[in-house]
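Project outcomes to date are best conveyed with an example. Our students and postdoctoral researchers have been running inverse folding experiments weekly, and each run begins with a structure described purely in tokens. The record below, which covers 192 residues, was selected by the lab manager from last quarter's runs and is presented without edits.
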């Protein structure tokens, strides 16, 4: 029955967004192919419509860690990562999806390294739950930091709140991230 679920809630969240976040590719395909709400509704479910904060179904797919759905949107020409006006927010969505989504995102976005350094995502991740330790390890990997001191400065950076990533993680009780940021490999250069 088409009338069981509303096509969008008061925040602009559509069924397509929910299906993308939970990973229901079959429903995503159905909704994209049928593009419109039931005929008795005055709401048109445009595939890449935005919710009240600007999330599209593509963002929801990333946040849910559903890279197959994100890839489907790209293949269907419903989302173009190169034309994204807010790459900062796109990367944040990928990080919320976890390490596998971050790795997928990096392959799709050639300026991945520039993005996470420019917007200091380490500070943001430090406020996320402790289970993002693997993402912290990934963006602090040696491959992105050929100059040891630059990585150290990135970790020690004071943001607008005058707090470092370590301070933020401690404040949130994110012990896994705190332990990762205190690891000797980030503070003592490797022997030559």
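After processing, the design step wrote out the following sequence:
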């Amino acid at each position: 029955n088409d009338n069981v679920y509303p096509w969008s809630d008061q925040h602009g969240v559509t069924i397509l967004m929910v299906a993308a976040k939970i990973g229901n590719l079959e429903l995503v395909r159905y909704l994209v192919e049928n593009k419109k709400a039931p005929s008795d509704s005055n709401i048109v479910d445009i595939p890449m419509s935005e919710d009240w904060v600007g999330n599209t179904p593509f963002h929801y797919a990333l946040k849910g860690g559903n890279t197959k759905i994100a890839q489907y949107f790209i293949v269907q020409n419903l989302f173009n990562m190169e034309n994204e006006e807010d790459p900062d927010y796109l990367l944040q969505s990928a990080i919320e999806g976890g390490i596998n989504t971050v790795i997928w995102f990096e392959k799709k976005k050639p300026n991945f390294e520039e993005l996470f350094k420019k917007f200091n995502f380490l500070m943001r991740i430090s406020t996320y739950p402790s289970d993002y330790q693997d993402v912290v390890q990934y963006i602090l990997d040696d491959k992105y930091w050929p100059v040891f001191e630059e990585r150290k400065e990135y970790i020690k950076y004071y943001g607008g709140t005058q707090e470092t990533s370590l301070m933020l993680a401690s404040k949130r009780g994110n012990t896994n991230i705190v332990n990762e940021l205190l690891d000797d490999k980030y503070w003592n250069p490797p022997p030559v």
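Confidence is low (pLDDT under 50) at residues 1-5. The radius of gyration is 19 Å. The training component of this project remains on track.
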